[in-house]
Protein: Putative sugar ABC transporter, periplasmic component
Organism: Deinococcus deserti
Amino acid sequence: MNRIHRTLALLSLAMTTAASAAPVTLNALLMKQAAYSEQDIRNMTKEFEAKNPNLKVNIEFVAYEALHDKIVASQASGSNGYDVVLFDVIWPAEFAQNGFLQDVTNRIPKASTDRVIKGAWTTVEYDNKRYGMPWILDTKYLYYNTDMLKQAGIKAPPRTWEELLQQADILKKKKITQYPIVWSWAQAEALICDYTTLVSAFGGQFYKGGTPAFNSGGGLKALTYMTDSVKRGLSNPNSKEYLEEDVRRVFSSGQAAFALNWTYMYNMANDPKESKVAGKVGVVAAPGAAGISKASAMNGSMALGISGNSQKADDAWKYISFLTSQPTQNKYAKLSLPIWKTSYTDPKVAQGQQQLIKAANTALPLMYPRPTITRYQELSVTLQKAIQEALLGRKTPQAALNDAAKTAARLR
């Protein structure tokens, strides 16, 4: 081989080596969320990239309200779409049937099944397969202002939803606060989460034998409870326009004695930089209903999955495995509780949030699911409109839910 050929061979080898060393870039679609903040996720990602120097992650954050449609739209972009996506517990049926998520059942170590809180797996399961790893294990808790309750002579937070209204009535009559309770009842998925919590408490069902059942029994009691609380002036009327961050803002400013919200609010409401009521925040599992339940909860969890059109599945799974790992989740447990059972006995995880851990131990085993149907999005919109009509006084709870049930019967 002459010198020119040797030079070309060496140059070719150098180019091949450089190409093989070039980092692989993963595209991830995540959420501008409560729970982990954008900065938290960027910090996690930097740690991942440091341990995997051949991998880089490009993250796009969108609002929850845009997340579903963004995932669906990305499937038309072929290999130029996302590799890792954050998805809600209500989407696996739709996404699995349409090929929007890859089946990762065989990627999950068998040992993980028993180590993860049982209810968390329902976040990723459909038709006996798993389409991701649970990541944000969440339900809604009842937060209360300990100082306000003390002023009103109330010794303990409510154990039932009816008792909540009784305590709110005392607070209102004593003029401690004008509207004691605040909710996220805007026409959005947040409204369905609050409604589902109440359906859980009152022993209701969304479907029974394939037929809509939310317009009777516990489903009807849940909506009647909601409308009554507004009519009695106990729930903030602006709740009908609020999302979760609005609820946090109102509660943290000292305008409400009670709020139903996700895990993330506990530490933020107790942060003097974020809240005027820091140090006066109590939290318990959402109440039950007398003679029916002792507490209530809905499954508001989210998971990380591999996009159906990703060509980098192995690398995407490495990133998902890192974010959902117990060490990573324990490190960032102040804004989202881990999916791992033994994390709850870790003193570092419990430190400063023992009350939240106690509430979680009651609530997480009770997480009630929203309907697992392919056309859930349509059902949700139908219910959102119906509930809003009742809250605005345009229809009675019975009439509103009856109309929604007619539509829901075609969506099953």
Summary: The longest helix spans residues 3-21.
